[in-house]
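Design job #97: recover the sequence.
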């Protein structure tokens, strides 16, 4: 089976390429490297001892995509390529709609031209919106409250609609990720954000290696276990394995659209994550309590039982493994892939 992985050089994509190659699948990556480095793919090959095909290409380039499909027999697509920063998305909404929504339309059109109708899409828990009760379950009403979340919601609608046309052959798996952290246990690949990280785990890791001085904990007065925000952290390798299962499931002959939460099903607070990281690394993380960050929710976590029942997948790796693997990656590569 040959899988086209858009955004395969990115954080989740690179870990997924490892798992696909180790599962014996052929991998073709399309990435324009706007938020990643080719070195990540070289390291994927080093970890697995297997080669993959790399195409330096923007998914909005239909002609380029046609050449990729014409020169490789692609059975399914895992579609990671997109912009993902919530704050940035409200500053540059058109760029987000163009990249995430128009990019997906271009990809799906070219797929259909080449009679490739199987796609696994990176959606997000963000689509549930601020009023959803926890745990989030796939049948809840959605209502994202930021531009990034709306791009994910629109793509979900577009792919679901493609499944709804008469005699549609589309087989779609919409995966709603919770908070991916961690790194491959080799310490060779991991999250390598540009500039100052927006997300908690890479921020903590950069404080630990001395790149940043101190963590700002955004709010300590939420109605949670210790007042700090609670999230469902999932090890990126577990998440990658979820994609292998989703793509295998598409190998069955039933067309249609399925939605799965990929989370661990339990939450940890900001201070619990800090403490776990300190224990794994032996380094004290200085932090200050700062005002709440606009748009943040107190607490959310997944009901991931549907993925367990239908994909035969569940998150296995503990918070201790998540922080230990993050630390191995960051301490081996204090400057990321550079
Ligand atoms: P990432 O930025 O590390 O990876 C995205 C990759 O896509 C990068 O390699 C980037 O260069 C590439 N890319 C972006 N636009 C492209 C385009 N137009 N053409 C070709 N390549 C392009 O992000 P990630 O954390 O690996 O996330 C992967 C996907 O999962 C994204 O769609 C993201 O929105 C989604 N997601 C991420 C998280 C998270 O917390 N990391 C959570 C939920 C969903
Ligand atoms: C986690 C917790 C913060 C940074 C985001 C996106 C979401 C998804 C995953 C793509 C919160 C607190 C954070 C810091 C802090 N991405 N925090 N200090 O906001 O749950 O989710 O990434 O789909 O769409 O919104 O993740 O890691 O930013 O925050 O105290 O410097 O850590 O307030 O409680 P979030 P996060």
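Job complete. Output follows.
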């Amino acid at each position: 089976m040959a899988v086209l992985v858009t955004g395969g050089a990115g954080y989740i994509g690179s870990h997924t390429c490892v798992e696909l190659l180790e599962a014996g699948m052929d991998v073709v990556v399309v990435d324009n490297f706007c938020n990643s480095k080719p070195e990540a793919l070289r390291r994927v090959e080093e970890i697995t001892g297997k080669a993959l095909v790399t195409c330096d290409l923007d998914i909005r380039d239909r002609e380029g995509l046609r050449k990729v499909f014409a020169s490789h027999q692609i059975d399914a697509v895992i579609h990671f390529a997109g912009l993902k920063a919530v704050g940035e998305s409200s500053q540059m909404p058109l760029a987000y709609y163009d990249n995430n929504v128009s990019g997906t339309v271009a990809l799906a059109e070219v797929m259909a031209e080449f009679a490739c109708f199987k796609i696994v899409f990176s959606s997000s828990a963000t689509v549930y919106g601020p009023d959803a009760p926890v745990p989030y379950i796939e049948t809840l009403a959605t209502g994202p409250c930021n531009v990034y979340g709306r791009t994910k919601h629109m793509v979900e609608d577009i792919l679901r609609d493609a499944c709804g046309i008469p005699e549609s052959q589309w087989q779609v798996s919409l995966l709603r990720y919770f908070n991916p952290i961690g790194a491959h246990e080799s310490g060779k690949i991991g999250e390598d954000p540009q500039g100052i990280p927006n997300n908690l785990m890479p921020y903590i890791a950069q404080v630990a290696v001395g790149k940043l001085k101190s963590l700002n904990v955004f709010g300590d007065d939420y109605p949670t276990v210790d007042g700090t925000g609670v999230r469902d952290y999932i090890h990126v390798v577990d998440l990658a394995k979820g994609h292998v299962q989703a793509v295998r499931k598409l190998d069955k002959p039933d067309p249609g659209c399925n939605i799965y939460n990929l989370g661990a099903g339990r939450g940890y607070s900001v201070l619990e994550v800090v403490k776990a990281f300190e224990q794994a690394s032996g380094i004290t993380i200085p932090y200050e309590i700062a005002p709440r960050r606009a748009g943040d929710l107190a607490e959310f976590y997944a009901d991931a039982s549907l993925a367990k029942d239908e994909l035969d997948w569940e998150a296995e790796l503990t918070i201790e493994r998540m922080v230990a693997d993050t630390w191995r990656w960051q301490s081996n590569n204090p400057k990321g892939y550079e």
